[in-house]
Amino acid sequence: MRKRISSNPLTQHIQDNSSIYSFIVVLFLMGVIFGAVVVNSLSYGQKEDLFYYLSQFFGQVADGKVATSEDLFRQSFFHNVKFLGLIWILGISIIGLPLILILLFMKGVVVGFTVGFLVNKMGWGGFLLSVVTVLPQNLLIIPVFIFITVLSVGFSLKLIRKIFIKQGMNFVFAPLFMRYAAAFIIAIGIISVSASIEAYLSPALMKSIVSTLKS
């Protein structure tokens, strides 16, 4: 049984890149914590201005005056694919390695700030809203972002080692790149599932929570 588990490609990939995964996960969590801390550094006026616009949005949600599910799907899908694609391209560029780490950190900041602000201003109701609006799609998005970031960092480090340290330009690039591209295609498929959740499931859950909080 242990041999069967270790022979699984995904398990083998995680084992081979355990140090990179550890670093990336810690970096992302640092971004989440930083985003939550930033909420407390905002002035009272800034919090009130943000909460005013948020309240307006929640009012539109409760009244059903939001974008169609198809529009929400397109916005979510293309936004995440562009962000993920940038990380993927930076992995090929070699010199984009620091930017990959910055982008993942910023992703964590956005998640941490969103949840932190909702909880800070709305308490338990804000926590419930963050669960239905942030958690469902991010259960897929965050692992995919971490996976692609690890692949991008690993791909970039392999290029650096093979070009500048070991083999010069005399190495087979095509198989390495094909595996890298295949992983990105799989990630796009998962992003489409998360976009469907964000477009079709989250608004209904949000409307239910908002209506409950208003009543």
Automatic annotation (TrEMBL):
Which portions of this protein are annotated as coiled-coil regions? Answer: none
A single cellular component GO annotation: plasma membrane
Membrane topology listed for this record: Multi-pass membrane protein
Q: Where in the cell is it found?
A: Cell membrane
Question: Where do transmembrane segments lie in this chain?
Answer: 20-44, 83-106, 113-134, 140-160, 180-201
Q: What is its main location?
A: membrane
UniProt keyword terms in alphabetical order: Cell membrane, Membrane, Sporulation, Transmembrane, Transmembrane helix
GO BP annotation list: sporulation resulting in formation of a cellular spore
One protein family per Pfam: SpoIIM
Subunit comment: Component of the MPD complex composed of SpoIIM, SpoIIP and SpoIID.
Summarizing the function annotation, the protein's role is: Required for complete septum migration and engulfment of the forespore compartment during sporulation. Required for stabilizing and recruiting of SpoIIP to the septal membrane.
Q: What is the name of this protein?
A: Stage II sporulation protein M
